[in-house]
Specification:
homotrimer; alpha+beta; Nuclear Transport Factor 2, Chain: A; 7-stranded mixed sheet; 4 helices; globular
Chain lengths: ~160, ~160, ~160
């Protein structure tokens, strides 16, 4: 059983995650993770075959922050905008009070001509902890089905 | 903090909005707005650049209703069907008891040959009020990422 | 009014449904239905025109199970993976304690080269019952907008 306060906090966290990326508030997006977080992007193929390769790995929040900084330097002009649509999470209570959450996402992009396309689908596998009534990502592993794409990691998924 | 009754009412409103458009119950869809509502569709580009141009604006529910009437006259045959998939809303309580809600959407269309495609992605920026335990749109601003499309406003987004 | 325990149980069921198909846990997926369930896939066109044709019909859980068995035999190699993104359900309480739920879905597929595409959009029309605090599908009618596709029913929608 997961208390409704936790359910609400998780729903808020999921919505906030999409909001902060899609509005290009990446510096604030970083604060949705715990200091000792793990943030990882992995192709589904590698998970299925037990291969170790990842597309991106950050072993704590500082590394997530560095990632944002390098994006800011590398991409002087924003060439696309993101739009996440995330399904309801599958929740599993953990003995230590944290919650495992798995949710599917579809990520769309739009270019400066106003043309949109499906960019990536996959799922989030999270460990969510609660601090002062708020939910934070202790772990977010993004499993991407769609890996046959150029410039995959221009912005976070 | 947003009480769970309000959260439920908002979730119901969001689902009802999609349902009434996608089932072509547009006359009932109008009743999801308050009498003094604002309903507006704006390209994201214009919002980002502070440009005043809108794709559609209705300054009250009567204007929303007129919009439906003109659709009924203009489109004698329904040439496509809509399907909205809407993400969980990001909620912010307001001092006056209303709630601001922001949610991403993907809108798909299907033609009479049964072929579907991505029609539009974007987000809803709402002010939601509560009357008799029900949630209504006092304001719904649709920010469309996808504006490079023909016949954009055949049906509401 | 629908109690929040029921709402939570329904949200869990929806997430679980997507999870078990998308992870290819089809044998477990069967257990989300009641023994006397109805599971049916119908083109939207047929519903609109009152035509009787269905794409798939299972009149109880044994038939759902048989369907999975035949899939396992027919598809020795998994040639694509599924990813469901499901919107919030529109809920209607029934006199007998069950709940009718209608939710839109977008189903994406990805091939072994990591390319993803929109496969099907439509909606679920469910009758949900509750057993021991858990929600189960007494009825799930899948109305598919997208019927102009090859190998439609390789895996469940």
């Amino acid at each position: 059983m997961i208390a409704s306060e936790k359910r609400d906090a998780i729903a808020d966290l999921m919505a906030e995650y999409a909001y902060r990326i899609d509005r290009d508030k990446l510096e604030d997006w970083v604060n949705l993770f715990t200091e000792d977080c793990l943030y990882k992007v992995v192709p589904r193929e590698n998970v299925a075959q037990g291969l170790p390769g990842v597309l991106l790995i950050c072993l704590n929040r500082n590394m997530v922050h560095d990632r944002v900084t390098s994006l800011r330097v590398a991409n002087e002009y924003n060439i696309h905008v993101d739009r996440h649509v995330i399904g309801a999470p599958r929740l599993t209570a953990q003995a230590d009070g944290s919650v495992r959450a798995e949710s599917n996402y579809a990520l769309f992009q739009t270019n400066q001509e106003g043309e949109s396309w499906l960019f990536s689908v996959g799922c989030y596998e999270d460990v969510i902890v609660f601090q002062g009534g708020k939910a934070l990502f202790k772990e977010r592993v993004v499993i991407v089905d769609t890996y046959a794409i150029p410039n995959l990691l221009a912005t976070p998924i």
